[in-house]
Amino acid sequence: MLDKVKNAFTESIQTQISATESLPELIVQATDMLVACLLAGHKIIVCGQGRSNANAQFLVTNLLHRYHLERPSLPALLIGLDGTLGSAIIADNNPSQIFIRQFECVARQGDILIILSPLGREEAILNLIHSANSKELPIITLTGQQNDHIRGALGEDDLDISIPAQKETRIIENHLLVINILCDLIEHRLFSH
């Protein structure tokens, strides 16, 4: 059991070391996109597939409430399938369309869509990307190494932050680190003057 625990720490550390080399510029670029969106009076729409919904909720909480600083709320909205709404949408629609109704109802020109998808091949996520493309909304994706489907659906103004890992657990935990960094940078840019 001790070896299993040590291996988990080692995998996580190795993933973070690889990410340190490949992701900082992308995270700064994502911060620039998000800050520009917020300064223009638009909102951030967030969607996480499967277990990534927890990270998506955490991101929206940090934007609406706070990360470190006491400050005004930032406009952020979670698209998800909790409770009755999720049950009704799944019962009445093709599962590949589960996020579309919510997204199309709230998305406006100038908003940004953030998608968390560790595996990057879920049809519901790909359909959401196509819907955002049709509305000309910029997209930031947090994915893993196996994200060819998502990368192929993104436009030239979109951004993919791909964790250099294949194991879903390592991807999800590193998505949380990226979220923490983004929230820290956004607060710093907007409120630390």
Automatic annotation (TrEMBL):
GO MF annotations, alphabetized: carbohydrate derivative binding
Any coiled-coil regions, as ranges: none
Lineage: Bacteria, Pseudomonadati, Pseudomonadota, Gammaproteobacteria, Pasteurellales
GO biological process, one term: carbohydrate derivative metabolic process
Name this polypeptide is given: SIS domain-containing protein
SIS domain residues: 34-193
PROSITE patterns: SIS (PS51464)
Gene3D superfamilies, alphabetized: Glucose-6-phosphate isomerase like protein, domain 1
